[in-house]
Write a structure and sequence with these properties.
Strands 1-3-2 form a 3-stranded antiparallel beta sheet. The protein is mainly α and 195 residues long. The termini are far apart. It has 2 domains: 4-137, Multidrug-efflux Transporter Regulator, Chain: A, Domain 2 (Orthogonal Bundle); 164-194. 81% of the residues lie in helices and 5% in strands. The longest helix has 60 residues, at 90-149. Strand 2 (32-34) and strand 3 form a beta hairpin.
Amino acid sequence: MTFYSAKEVSEIIGIGESTARTWARDFEIEHKRKGLKMLFSKDALDIFKTVQQLRESDAGQNTIRRTIHPNQAVAEQESSSNMTDMLLTEQESVTAQSVIIKTVVAQAIQENNELAEKYALACRHIGSLEEQVKNLTTLTESQSQHLKLLPSADYHQSVINRNKDLETELEDLKAKQSLMKSHWLVKLLFKNERK
């Protein structure tokens, strides 16, 4: 279960941190303590939102208490000597119900907006991926055209074989040249010896 500190509640709701602590005490909003920190559940966070809505509609503290703690309000009504002060007027009841409905509707709208944002992000991501696929397809087609221009493997092997033949021929010619040089040298030497 997720718990929120008074500071986190104040940031989420848009109220001061001290206001969150005061409301927790004044309206007996359920919380746990961890050292000096007050920790609130998700349900308590919803109660803070309801209190904020009721405060914005100028509801009194008694109205707020009765709205967020209806069972406690009934017990207080039964034990109170001044029952007329404790009863909700029909207008306050309608106002409280209206605030609760507005809170629920606002939460639903926020959830829908979050889903719409996620959908828009997914659409952008899909569009980006489609563009990448298009670019890769174009690149693949271009590379296929370049590969068609390259000589085949058989041609490449024939060039290698031809180079080997030419190297062998060159070696033979060098050997013949060396033999001819030797032959001419012998002839020259022999001619010089005769003289």
